[in-house]
């Protein structure tokens, strides 16, 4: 049955089955009536974010120095639980129901020449993938986008950290990570007739936790070209040593990380997008490892980017990340969507983000 939201926003859904047999509803917006005059480079009036000059933020530099010199109040005592491997049956490849595949293929064929970009939008704590898709529908119409919103529901993903930490753990191959579901869904879209070679990824709040760790852990073979993480509650800092808090608060003792992988992650186009008014501590994680990153989401996001700047300098690589704030924005994905779209679609968005360094090997 078509509900009011689908009638109003054109949000549809198909079922994807991952490599562990778990069903993932994939909500998407694909409009057959894109305005012919719209271009992917259309400006976003009134949404231009403001760059924070982190190199001139002494408080953040002092905090980083204090943490990385091992002088934090707490050290190695916190050992958060790591997601355990699922015992579910592993299928050879993911897929989607035949009827859904046929419908999706038909819709893709109808608008194929008009789709300019593919953006995966990752939901937050409420797992409201359909709502996220609806919020992005207007932007999709304006810029000829295919917006894809996977739903990692409580039924099939009861441990929420299987989502936010991406299913990364020692002994689990990359193909079985939750992160890799994005690559598999993209393959399903290609099989349905999508003629695109890459995609972008955006997440807000818990979705931003997914997004920034996707940037840190996914190998160079992932076909993602831009990643934006908005208002994450806490972060995995790109430090491995010295840092007093181990994974998942940093890459110290993190599985599947190497010097080569960290260098690649730092060179990706990653946007750290923060709401200027995201200062409320409601539902904010307050473990020692999280509180060491700052008292608010705004402060934690600033520290995360500052850590990337520091590690890139130490490793002598070119940093491809960018930090921006959205004036007046709170902890609401509706406040952040248009600014996120500007970062993902504007071809010049990362032009001034590079921090140059020499190439070094570990």
Protein architecture, described:
By secondary structure, this protein is α/β, with parallel strands linked by helices. It is built from twelve helices and nine strands. It has a nine-stranded mixed sheet, with helices on both faces. Helix 2 crosses helix 11. The radius of gyration is 20 Å and the shape is globular.
Highlighted features:
362 residues, 12 helices, alpha/beta, nine-stranded mixed β-sheet, disordered C terminus, single chain
Topology:
Elements: H1 4-9, E1 11-17, E2 23-29, H2 58-68, E3 95-96, H3 98-111, E4 117-122, H4 129-135, H5 137-143, E5 145-150, H6 161-164, H7 180-191, E6 199-204, H8 206-217, E7 224-230, H9 259-267, E8 270-275, H10 288-291, H11 297-315, E9 321-326, H12 333-345
Helix pairs in contact: 2-11
